[in-house]
Amino acid sequence: MSMPSSIPTISVVICTYTEKRLSLLTQVVESVRLQTLTPDQIIVVVDHNEDLYKRLLMDFRDVVLVESQAQPGLAGARNTGVSVATSEIIAFLDDDAEAAPDWLERLSVFYDDPDVLAVGGRVEPVWETGRPAYFSEELDWIVGCSYRGMPRMAAEVRNLIGANMSFRSDVLEHVGGFNHDLGRQAVKPLGCEETEICIRSTLASPGARIVYDPAAVVNHHVPTSRGTLSYMLTRAWSEGLSKAQVSHLVGHKRALRSERRYVRTILPRAVLSGIRDWGTGRDSAGLGQAGAIVAVLACTTGGYLRGRQIAHTTRSRAARTTTAPEEAWRTVTT
């Protein structure tokens, strides 16, 4: 693999919030230490957990350890990491996502092109107790991973996956960082702050590109609890709510461009394939996979419609009061 003519400096930001992931966090940090392209900084941001912060002070002496200075939530923690990063490129890695040794090297290659704003890679699920039979690869976005239907070779995309993404630092500064009113907050499974900031970044720099390279891999730990049908449907509903909120901010055409292809092409093919495999006896789990896809799509659609209703209510309230739309959103969805 050829390296860029001028290798950019890179800071890696890892956000964490719970002691339950301490052993995983240790592995994640070690995977960054062992990169073929050594980062200039490893930044661990603790999201409003003072006990965890004190414990990490003893465990991670060779990293930049900071407490989140923003409101609780992943977006705020990421913005805190950005504020202390000193490199040209800022890469983000989840506290349960272990990077392949050449992860940073592969991401950095694309920054030789000045039109590239951000680069991300494949997120491979590592199931704690094995993939459930009904959980098809088309639904891996539910657990924050790359899913079947995404590009198989390096390609321009609308947005990156949060567990494996990087941005030019000046791009993040220009657009004002991640939106604090989007994204996961503790165990509240909202999301889409990555989608929104990617859209905002390309709008601010017409003609610029965001690149996804499946060869830049991180392995994402998936606990057994996230493979249950209950979690799948809850996460799908939250995704619908989140997509509606992003649509409210950037317009539904931009917010749903990739989702239209996914719903019209990828999911119908997966449903028909599952039913066919079950009917021919090739895969007894096929019918369960097809049913799960239909249920997830229904919940996501329901969440989106509910979110649109909330957005309409928000606009009506905003017309009568001085309450900001984002504040009203938080009130209705809490």
Structure description:
The protein is α/β, with parallel strands linked by helices. Helix content is 46%, strand content 18%. α2 (50-59) links the parallel β2 and β3 (64-67). α7 runs parallel beside α10 (286-320) and α10 crosses α11 (325-333). It starts with 9 loop residues before the first strand and ends with a helix. The model has no long low-confidence stretch (mean pLDDT 88).
Name the features:
nine-stranded mixed sheet; 11 helices; 334 residues
Work out the number of β strands.
Answer: 9
| Mean pLDDT over the residues | 88
Largest sheet: 9 strands, mixed
Distance between the termini: 47 Å
The Rg value, from CA coordinates, equals 20 Å
Uncertain ranges: none
Report the β-strand fraction as a percent range: 15-25%
- In helices, the fraction of residues equals 40-55%
